[in-house]
Amino acid sequence: MKYKGGELNPQKEEIEAAEWVPAEEVLDKLSFDKDKKIYNIAMQKLQKLKVHA
């Protein structure tokens, strides 16, 4: 995946910060185990499709 443009507009009530980071840094940035699990599942599916992040 590559960043193509646009602005990040986090919901202030729910998100402390939003930023674009390389795929290998995502797990270090996520706070909740549920979010890390969702990310890992998404990456597994992308790898099966041979899409490189």
Estimate the global geometry from the Cα principal axes.
globular
What is the residue-mean pLDDT, rounded to a whole number?
82
Report the C-alpha radius of gyration, rounded: 12 Å
Low-confidence stretches: none
The helical percent reads 25-40%
Order of helices and strands: HH
**First-to-last CA distance:** 4 Å
Number of strands: 0
The helix tally amounts to 2
Strand content: under 5%
Characteristics of this structure?
mainly alpha, globular, hydrolase, 2 helices, 38% helix, 53 residues
What would you note in describing this structure?
With 53 residues, the chain is mostly helical. Helix content is 38%, strand content 0%. The protein is globular, with a radius of gyration of 12 Å.
At a glance:
It comes from Sulfurihydrogenibium yellowstonense SS-5. The chain is mainly α.
